[in-house]
Structure formats: structure tokens, C-alpha cells
Amino acid sequence: MSKVQRLKKKVFNYFFDHPKFKLVIEYLYSLVICTISAAIFSFGFAVFAKGRIFDGTETISIITGGASGVSQCIRLIIQLAVGPENEFLHGILIEAIFYSVVNVPLIIFAFRKIGIRFALFTCINVGLSSLLMPYFNEWDLCNKIATHSMIFQQPLVRTLFAGFCTGLSSAIAFKGLFSTGGLDIVGYYMSLRKSSSTGKYTGVLNVVNVIVYTLLFVWNILTFPSYYGSDGAWIDAIISLLYGFVYLAVVVLVVDLINVRNKKVQIQIVTNHLHLSDALIANFPHSVTITKAIGGYSHKEKYILMMVVSSFEVKKVVRVVRLADSMAFVQVASLNQVYGKFFINPIK
User: For residues 264 and 212, what is the distance between their CA atoms, to the nearest angstrom?
Assistant: First the structure.
């Protein structure tokens, strides 16, 4: 056993003997992850997604989807009632307020349907994001980045960076077993129910959000033609929609690339030892299917053990197999979907 393995074993044994201390460390770790996730999202939204005015030139806001996208839609609805000239409606503070308000019923839903710990840290994440958004918007360094010619004059670059920041923020939150709030809560709940990837569900919900935002934006253009102008506003609406789709595609790609909780892998093990199945069942909450086979070279009887595990369990499976049978042949194949009973540790 190496020094690192011995150290891990000592740490594991210490936490096993001190469960309360282990709980405190887990919550502190989750709080750090929560802060990092909120900071990345707030930075991406304030610097890349939020429209800005610089040297008399105004950039369009990227339709972000999620709770921030819903808050953008609410802003447009209020704008229809009070008019677009109100400067407060164009500030980031109003969207930070709406971002918190939109999340309240969704966090209540998370408490009831997903788990208390999940909802608690989601609530903390949302609160931190609401506090950090105005801070990042006013920070000189963020303003310099946002108004840099390679960012300010390149809407595609802004879209890609904004999508990457949002996707990374959501993926980090999912890895910490909570979310960034908004439609991510609904998408995460649906992925748990269907035992599938989270990205595709949040993607569908956000596409609807983007379309609704575009329709409201067009409605504002028709209602206040003198404010928006006649030609450029329509072009802005179409471009916003297209960039919104690019943004969502990047978010889904990053989330599914990092968040592997619901990804399944099929493992086939060719071995001479039938007892290997007992070792696998003892170490994993999944069963094993055994098939008798004949070796093509040796013509001796062998066993094919097949099991489905989560992708993050693959290395541990291979390690257990190697310890029990160093001559075993292991094949790993990714799966798109699994139907039937498959155990996943529940969200607390």
C-alpha cells in the first residue's frame, strides 16, 4: 500500500469515528463549492451576458435562460407597462432582485421533491449570486474586460464565454449535489426521475425561455417603435435569438461534460473465477449477470460478468477486478439510457 493510500485510509477511519466532524467538513466544503459556483455565474452574467453602453455604442443582452432569463422576461413585461425610458429597468440590480424572486417557488419545490440539503445550498447559491452580480458589474477589472475591443465588439465571443461560465457554474453546483437555482432545479429533478443526463432537460426548458423572451422583445418593439427604431431593433431581436441558442448549446455541452452523475456504463468482465461476482456485489450497490462462455483460444470454460454502473464508479470497478483476478479481461462501453431499477445514491 502506497503512502497516499495509507493516508486516505487514516482519513477515512478518522471521519468514520467522528461523524459529526465529518458532517461539518462536508458542509464547509459544500459552502466553498457554492461560493465558487455563484462567483463564476455572476462574473459571466455581469461581464459577458449583460448588455452595456460604451463610447456611445450599446451591445445587446444575451438571452441566458434559467432564472436570469426569466428575470429578463419579467423586466420586459414591466417595461411594457411603464415604458423603456426608465433607467432602473436597464440596470443589473433589477435583474438581481428578480433573479431571487423567481427562485423562491423553485427552491420550495426543491425542498419538497429533491432534498433539504440540496435546497439549502441551492438557496445559498442563489443568494450569493444575487449579491455578487451588482459587485461584478461595478468592479473596474470586470468593466475593463467587458469593454475590451476583443470582447465588446465580438458578440460571438461574449456568447461563448457567457455560456461557458454558466455551464461551468451549473456543473460545479451539480457536482456538489445542489444547483444554481432557476430552471436547473426542474431539469435536475427530471433527470433524477428519468435517470438521464441533466443537460438535455435544462436545454429544452431554456429554449422555451429564449423563445418567450424573443416574443416579448418583439412586442416591446411594436409597442415603442420610437424608442427602439424601425430597422435595427428587428435585427437585434433575430440576432439575440440566434446567439441565445448558441449560448444554451455551450451551457448544455459543458454541464453534460462535467456532470456525470446520471451517466451509465456497461462493464463486461471475462474471468475464470466465478467468485469475482461476490466481490463486485460486496463493493457496489449493483447486481451482476453471469453468462457461461468458452474461450476461443484455450477452449476452456469461462464466465462473462456483466454489470451497469455510474461512470464515476468505473475506476473502482476495475481496481476491484484487478485485485481479485489480475488476468481478467475488462470491457467498458458507454450507454445512452438504462430502463429498469438502477440504484443511485439519493440526494439529501
Answer: 34
319-346 pLDDT per residue, tens: 888 888 888 899 998 877 777 777 666 5
Cα(262)–Cα(312) distance, integer angstroms: 9
SS (H, E, C) 46-101: HHHHCCCEECCEECCCCCCCHHHHHHHHHHHHHHHHHCCCCHHHHCHHHHHHHHHH
* CA distance linking residue 79 with residue 90, whole number of Å: 10
Q: How far apart are CA 168 and CA 162, in angstroms?
A: 10
And the C-alpha cell for 284?
A: 457496489
Round the average pLDDT of the chain to a whole number and report it.
80
Per-residue pLDDT, 306? 92
Question: CA dist 88 to 91, 134, 178, Å?
Answer: 5, 13, 32
105 vs 249: CA distance, rounded Å = 26
pLDDT at 206: 81
**Is pTM, for the whole model, over 0.85?**
no
Backbone angles phi, psi at 123, to 5 degrees: -65, -45
How far apart CA 139 and CA 334 sit, in angstroms, is: 44
Residue 256 DSSP class: H
